[in-house]
Fold this protein.
Amino acid sequence: MHPVPSMPLSLDKMKEKTMNETITEIRFDIPRISCGHCTGAIERELTDMEGVVSVAGDIAGKFVTVRFQPPATKDGLLALLTEIGYPAA
Ligand SMILES: [Cu+2]
């Protein structure tokens, strides 16, 4: 985690902060990840889903960390992972 500087926020920054708080971050454990092609495919497919903000795969740890907001949902992401052949544990 990166430390966040505690500075007074401008109104614009406060709006940005409020919006950012709607973003959900979930780590999905995916046993079938074995190499960079796996994480590359997962990152590409999930990033295409509307509402997905970022996807970061970890080959050694066999997981992906996904940050998303509506209309993307956890169930939708789980369904997509299964569909592309990388079901979450
Ligand atoms: Cu692979």
